[in-house]
UniProtKB/TrEMBL annotation:
Protein name as catalogued: Putative ATP-binding cassette transporter
Residue ranges occupied by any ABC transporter domain in the UniProt entry: 325-544
GO CC annotation terms, alphabetical: ATP-binding cassette (ABC) transporter complex
Spans through the membrane: 12-33, 53-75, 124-143, 149-167, 231-254
Membrane topology: Multi-pass membrane protein
NCBIfam families: cyc_pep_trnsptr
Domain of life: Bacteria
Residue ranges that the Swiss-Prot or TrEMBL entry lists as coiled coil: none
Gene Ontology biological-process annotations: peptide transport
Keyword presence, Transport: yes
Limits of the ABC transmembrane type-1 domain: 51-291
Keyword annotations from UniProtKB, A to Z: ATP-binding, Membrane, Nucleotide-binding, Transmembrane, Transmembrane helix, Transport
One of the record's GO molecular function terms: ATP hydrolysis activity
Length: 545
């Protein structure tokens, strides 16, 4: 039912066409059985018209099946694609702190495993519709042959359906538990790939990871999934057993109470045997449908936890130049691992101006990264506000506020496709930057795409710097950019890149521990246990000379 609603939301007309043609296919297939049975009974009196009727039914079965299959295939895959795009768009629009709390493993499981499970179920819908039509038409034909036998058939089918209810609930419970464990499995797989170097270097940690984390979760997932699917296997085979029991009843028991002719019994058994395949396929779809219903519930529950941030109208665009960034009584608090209570950054007041290079320094855990996320708008302040030129607020116009920044964080992500890759002037500028960053011998730009990202961390950061330069945003933030660079490029960053951005009138914020270069900053901001204060650079400048 959930799958049909999902398809109906996409296009109820297409669903109606597919459903009607699927049922028509089933009716035509049952008509074929009736025609075959009639032809066998009157084999000696067959006429050319009987052959034409048979051929017409075959054409009807084939044509309606094609229309139903293709219509539902296109509709189903479009619905799944729309679901993936909708979820992806909602993830992008969800505030960064909420995404952090949800975790990458849950989001990846939703976008990959859950949508794939639903896609598999959608692919079964055409088969189910056709088989349902066949079963209904065959039941109608059985009723035409003998109403008492139809009553017996219906009673056994209802008995089988009633006996499915409780086991199916147990099966769904086990599959639901397995699905919850899959989130944990995805998290362990993430650790396995991200921490492969550490696991290979430390055998004890490797044993701990496999024996205490990956193995127990994997085994519990296997047990829950096998339990659920085993219940389904029991249900399916029990259903087949009931059907064969029905055939035995018609053959051996019913003639003791009802007068039946050999021709009627032959037609009845022929129709029942023909029904076995569509009924079996309907029952075999139950496990996939059950898993899909669990995945749909999981997606809806997770989707409900996504807080979509407001996106401004398309007419709003970031300014080409920003004169200043004002922080007024800004405060943000959060939980930190291993500490009681909440860690609070601020409240603090700052005013940063264009054409300045501002360094932010502080110890580990002091709140530097949180400050960076606040300044760029990825975190919204719990108190106070951040304003660009007294016009764009990080609290009320967060999306527009963020568009004024280009940032390279320590956990940066590098995209192989450059923005505006079809602009020849911009691509030539990118090639010039590659030469300045001494990457032209390793990386080419073809069709707006970087030829490789298989580089060292320092080289990848230089590519990220190239992308940031091409963005040409009014505000730049660099979070320990120079930490992975050799001395030559570290000096190049502090003495060439930052002065160039200053000369271009950019507001430049640099998180750095390189105190040997602090004297090059126009201002120095110190973060210490949540307190933000400005420190003079003059003593540092004097010490440098």
């Amino acid at each position: 039912m959930d799958l049909l609603l999902l398809l109906a939301r996409r296009s109820w007309r297409t669903l109606l066409i597919a459903t009607s043609t699927g049922l028509a296919c089933g009716l035509a297939a049952a008509g074929l059985i009736a025609n075959i049975n009639h032809s066998l009974a009157g084999f000696g009196q067959l006429r050319p018209a009987d052959g034409l009727l048979f051929a017409g039914l075959v054409v009807l079965v084939v044509s309606t099946r094609i229309v139903s299959d293709v219509s539902l295939l296109r509709l189903g895959q479009t619905a799944i694609s729309d679901m993936r795009l909708h979820l992806s768009g909602k993830l992008i629009d969800t505030p960064y702190p909420r995404l952090q709390r949800l975790g990458k493993h849950r989001l990846l499981a939703m976008l990959t495993d859950d949508t794939q499970t639903i896609s598999q179920a959608v692919e079964l819908v055409p088969v189910m519709l056709v088989n349902s039509g066949i079963v209904l038409a065959c039941l109608a034909y059985l009723g035409w042959l003998s109403l008492p036998l139809l009553g017996l058939t219906a009673a056994l089918i209802l008995l089988g359906a009633a006996s499915f209810h409780w086991p199916q609930r147990k099966a769904l419970t086990s599959i639901g538990k397995a699905r919850e464990l899959k989130d944990q499995l995805f998290d362990q797989y993430r650790l396995l790939t991200d921490g492969s170097k550490e696991l290979q270097l430390n055998h004890s940690r490797r044993l701990q990871f496999f024996e205490r984390l990956l193995y127990p979760i994997s085994q519990q997932y296997r047990r829950d999934f096998v339990r659920g699917m085993s219940i389904y296997a029991l249900v399916l085979n029990w259903g087949n057993g009931i059907f064969y029991l029905l055939i035995g009843t018609v053959l051996f028991l019913a003639p003791q109470f009802i007068e039946l002719s050999a021709t009627l019994v032959t037609g009845y058994i022929l129709a029942l045997l023909y029904m076995i395949t569509p009924l079996s396929e309907l029952m075999n779809a139950l496990p996939t449908l059950g898993r899909a219903s669990v995945s749909l519930r999981k997606i809806r529950a997770l989707e409900g936890q996504l807080e979509v941030a407001g996106t401004p109208a398309d007419t709003l665009s970031p300014a080409r130049h920003v004169a200043r960034l004002a922080c007024r009584e800004v405060r943000h608090s959060y939980y930190r691992e291993g500490e009681d209570g909440r860690f609070t950054l601020g409240p603090f007041d700052l005013e940063l101006r264009a054409g300045e290079v501002v360094f932010i320094t502080g110890g580990n855990g002091s709140g530097k990264t949180t400050l960076a996320l606040l300044l760029t708008g990825l975190y919204q302040p719990e108190g106070g506000d951040l304003l660009l030129d007294e016009q764009v607020s990080a609290s009320t116009q967060n999306h527009l506020y963020r568009q004024h920044f280009s940032a390279i964080f320590t956990d940066f992500c590098l995209f192989e496709h450059l923005l505006d890759g079809d602009d020849p002037h911009l691509m030539q500028q990118a090639r010039d930057y590659l030469a300045h960053l001494q990457l032209a011998h390793k990386v080419n730009i073809e069709g707006g795409r970087l030829s490789t990202l298989d580089l060292s961390t320092g080289q990848r950061k230089r590519l990220a710097l190239l992308a940031a330069y091409l963005d040409d945003r009014p505000c730049y933030l660099f979070d320990e950019w120079a930490a992975d660079q050799d001395p030559v490029f570290k000096r190049f960053f502090y003495t060439k890149i930052l002065p160039d951005l200053r000369q271009r009138g950019k507001l430049v914020i640099v998180i750095s521990h390189d105190d040997a270069y602090f004297h090059l900053a126009d201002r120095l901001i110190k973060v210490d246990q949540g307190c933000v204060s400005e420190t003079s650079t003059e003593p540092l400048a004097a010490a440098a000379y």
